[in-house]
Protein 1
Amino acid sequence: MIKLNNITHTYGIKPVLHDLTLDIEANQLTCLLGSSGSGKTSILRLIAGLEIPKSGEITIDNISVTENKQILIPPHKRTIGFIFQDLALWSHFTVYKNIAFGLTEQKTTRRQSTKKNIKDTVFKMLNFFGLQEHAEKYPHQLSGGQKQLLAISRSLVLKPKILLMDEPLTNIDVKMKRKILEHIKKLKQNFNLTIIYVTHDHKEAFAIADKIVVIDEGKIEATGTVEQIKNSENKFIKYFIEI
Amino acid sequence: MDRRIIKHPLYTIVLLSFIFFVVVPVIYTIGTALFFDVSFNDNLQSLDKHTFFLLSKSIVIASVIAIFSTLLGTTLGFLLYKTNIKFHRSFKIILLIPLLISPYILAVAWKDCFFIFFNNTNLIPSYLGVILVLTTIFTPLSMLIIGNALSNINAQLEESGFMIINPSKIILRITLPLIKPALITSFVLVFIFSISEFSVPAFFDVKIFTTEIFTQFSAFYNHSLAILQSALLIIICVFLLFTERQYIANAPFFSIGSKGNSNKTYNLKGWNSLSLLFIFFWFFISILFPFSILFFQSLKDGTSKFIQAFELLLPTFSSSIALSFAGALIIVFVGFSAAYFSTQQTKTKNKKSFDWLLLLIFAIPSTIFGISLIKYYNHPVLDFIYSSYAIIIIGYVGKFSFISAKLIGNAIKQIPNSLCEAAQVQGIVPFKRLLKILIPLIIPTLFITFVISFIFCFGELGTSIMLYPPGTELMPIKVFTIMANAPQSLTSSMTLIVFSITLLMIISFYFIMKPFIKNYSYTND
């Protein structure tokens, strides 16, 4: 579904990804696993169209979205949802407005989105994530876990096909982490999603992934199922998992 | 954020307008005086020993003020930002008052003091008067710069030193070296403000370089010589500012409500009472004493002088407030445009060009900037600007947009990119992202920038005294022109009225904007 072909990416003169090729299958939860600075987040941002690679091509559903240092399809036309590491919740909007904002602003292009439709859609999402009681609260009035759920709801309300999650569970306690990981697992089926989940925590990856891609210094070290990665003889992977 | 946004027509319009209305006059005036003026050689001959003596005198006085302000600012900054001394929160705000008033108000107060105690205003030595008043005015600026730098030091850097050496050595060997950029910034900014200052030396009758330029311009009408002399001053200011541009451009004091690292505070132990005494002494010297004197002086013969002062200033109220209001609005707009486009993540090479232009105009002394505007706009084609209030607003915009751009720029930098990227992914167009995400998040900064710009415009004298069209009545100009021949009590009353109106306007803005600001103040976590 998503293909990265020979992607090279740099920040200034600092190389981040080296001639990276990666296939992400549809309706799977793929974890990009690696240590800090390995290039995981850059892959997500390139897929989203928030950054332009130095060379290489990215395709989504066999349509070229980025090629020859050019964004061919802008981020909002890629049918993606993005959950940022800091969640990027709009602190001046209520929970309701955070979710409704995208729908409201797109209503000129989506003529069927009347005010009532938007309200129904937002409350459907709030109910699904158990946030209905908090609709009028501001993000800073929510708990850590509720914030995560709000960020997920906001991303899903525009019905994306792909959900990109950049270490969304950082700074969450273990109990809440387990609960949200369960939620994420269900999302794939309920919303028919292809999920790319970035993490440095192999336990998180083992708990939810259909497929794991281990990345180190901008290169893919290994790809496989949870079992394949667990049993890998690759020295780096063994070392990384032991840590 | 969108990389292509730098090509936004709004950016181009604001940048080109700034170049046309503000930058071109300066280049045109200095260029014609230096390269096309027939009397250039004669004027060059006029730059004799006397000129360089005055320039040296200005440099020495400005250096003394910059050193005193930086030393006092360091001490006060340390006590109020790095210790838990009593009343430190209140003093952090109270001690900023001198920064919000026009320098000549304090000059009047100190002259009053000598008039009251010795019945002779000439007893205060002129040089001492200039240094005292300007040090009082600029010490809060140094305190703000250095205090912010001190509170942004990561506590662990100092705590690791505690394992090895005692607190006094930590201050000398770790803390002070870490805030070296702030110390340099403080010195350079105070030096430039002092060397450009015109009203206080003129009030104390001290002949320095800026007063000489003003005399050449307004008394002898020798514009070319005034500009040639100005060029020397510009070279000094621009050289200093551009040398330290990196420190100054990123100076933390330009941020409003920035989140620093955890701050290490020191226990003053036996020094507590002495330190508190020092803070009270400075409060007395810089605020309490001068204002008490002004009150005493203006009300000692009853309210007659006060009423007379009020009647004299009454015609200037509406024009001063309206012009400052309009000026502040435009300054915030220009500052926002420059800040927004220069903080974008773009590879465009000229993204900092607006910043450089703002810095260049900021570095030019007020009187010289005023002369440039007059020379440029005094042509039949541009007479509609020259003979109207527009020229004064252009003067305000040129002088204060740099500060506004820095305040707003630092606020924008504190907004994570991901907030706008999240909207970008959802298909929100750049203009809507700006209007509905970014601007609401920086509303408090925009408001504070507006109030600061208003105060600066309201008290501005150096440029507007050159520019005001015939028949225009502005408060600082009226006070300045009347004070030369008016009795001391009338001058005191007028300055008190100016100060009261400034304060009243700040309070009014606060209450008008309070509910609005409250709605837009968030806990970002």
Protein 2
Amino acid sequence: MVFEAFLLEKTIIVLVVFVVTLSIAAYSTYGERKVAAFLQDRIGPNMAGPYGIWQPLADGLKMFMKEDFVPAAANKFLYHIGPGLSMLTALMVSAVIPWGKSLIIGDGEASVQVTDINVGILYVLGVVSLGVYGVMIGGWASNNKYSLMGALRASSQMISYELPMGLSLIALVMTTGTLSFNEIAAQQSGWNGMEWNIFYQPLGFIIFIVCAFAEANRTPFDLPECEAELVGGYHTEYSSMKLGFYLFSEYAHMFVSSAIIATLYFGGYNFPGINTLYEIMPHNVVTAISIGVLMIKTLFFIFLFMWVRWTIPRFRYDQLMDLGWKKLVPLAIANIVLTAGIVLLFK
Amino acid sequence: MAEYNLSNRKVMVSNKKMTFSERLYLPEILRGMGVTINHLFKPKVTYVYGKDIRPFATTYRGQHVLKRDDEGRERCVACGMCAVACPAEAITIVAAERQPGEEHLYREEKYASTYEINMLRCIFCGLCEYACPKEAIYLTQRLVEVETNRRDFIYTKDDLLESMDNRIDISQRRLR
């Protein structure tokens, strides 16, 4: 019975997380177009439904209706598997994000997290670095020079930026003393829900968010796609819903990255006054509020991704490598040394 | 060497060394983001096609109108000047003679029994209104509406003639 209850609970959480991730990813496309339009003094999509809110559905339908073209010289198996792989890795990361403290159902306590791995951060780094395969395989299998160039850029960019990302997380792990996402989120409930890691790791946060932009292939690091020079980059040869999957996985990736940034540095589901609320209000209600708070934080970071995209131009390729290897890596190492010194002195 | 500045638009390229905060890049990014976020709240310049109609210049040349005089009689005498002037050959006229008893319909003895403009041929140059000796045809600020059938773009007298209870104002047009 216990096992069945466990299975049911996890199935429900997995399904809910899956559906929420996909729907937010879908509406991020709409959000992106709206944000882009508003930042450029335009209106954006406004024809499909009130304020154009059915636009993602129309786009999805369009994608499904398109001809699913496979280049004659493509490696068929890899060509088909590429977009799925890209989507898979983007979605897998969401498994370790704690969406709230816990829900009390009957007399048991259910965590609002798909799984609490005790090496959650390593898991995230591992899955994120797998993300390069979707892009690389897609670009390689298309048998197109632009795709290959895009894929090469993508893989070198992702590998370069994983390094400072991992290093910035090491400093975070030093202050928190754990690799588990759940514990990191729980630790930030100090000071009545305001003891966020951003106050301990401001430099680490900046390094991490820059790397997150690069990992999600977002401007200013969207060299793999680079419409101007690479005719679309690694997904040049893709059409129909396969292309849709690639574009979609970028938004799923963006959502998951935002959730991770919010969890690691911005208190996760904690908000000012959460501990007081837990004492005076029913447990489940406060948990529901905190889930909503995490969603708001996540949506803010998604907005930040878009805001940056429509503000700054793309890096040149050598500037990108320069920033990654010559600036961020030394900065991250300096951050580690600094953090280590402070931890030794004050803890 | 002498400095030549013929156009007065010459701008020297600035190669000044960047300050420390500029080289840090982040403060400058934040400044740029401040600029873009301000645009989020600025009024939008879009006219929604199909919903809004953007303001036209008074000299805008849109769909034609065949004018009537103040007593409701057609001004056109089917002289064919507009058809001759038309560079796109969009105008077709068939002339007819006014019969006794039709004086309240047509201003002069001759009138156009058929007056057609093919809106797909028309280039809206406005030469027809310049050519017209009787001030019968004018271009207006109205747009030619979308049709799904090519034949529907051939506007007949029914489409072109103004009705007396809904007269088209052409007082803003300055032709000569």
